[in-house]
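I am still getting used to backbone structure tokens and would like to learn alongside you. To get us started, please write out a protein record for me. Once you have written the record down, we can walk along the chain together.
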Amino acid sequence: MILNSKNYLDYNLFGKVIIFPTDTVYGIGCLYEDIDSIKRIYEIKNRDYTKPMVILCSNMNQVNSLIKSGQNLPEHLKKHWPGKLTIIFFKNENVYDIISSGKETVGIRIPGNEISLNLLEKHGPMVVTSLNISNEPAITKFNDVLRYSDKVDYIIEGGDLDSAPSTVYDLTENRVLRQGDIVIK
């Protein structure tokens, strides 16, 4: 079902896999506690279970609920949130191993897209990855999103996007893993 900017917050996301715009590319995601839907995302994308997924949050309270205590986010990183920066933290017991591929770390981002932020504010953190078949380019054009309509529960309209994927910064090792539009020095 295709949802628009007026009705997308009217639907319950429990047990659902959705496609929605982020501030970088279209994402495919579900509520972070929903293991069955997480497995569906791996299947839809043909994604290897050794590749972890990211959790999107709407605010630092949500972030802090997913990471080990005592990890401080430096100001030079904090200033890019919300935005196109994914940060790797040590995860806590609230993050299932299926999300992190069994690693002790998890990637988290607070996106700058209004639709994404509203979803996360209403429903809580979501497990998200780029919409594509693994190892193919991420989808940025809404017409290309529609070919997934029979594989997911909801698609939220967001127009065409035009952005590089997020920069990925590993806070546990203090290094950039993927360079996007945001440059961390």
The mean pLDDT is 93. The chain has six helices and ten strands.
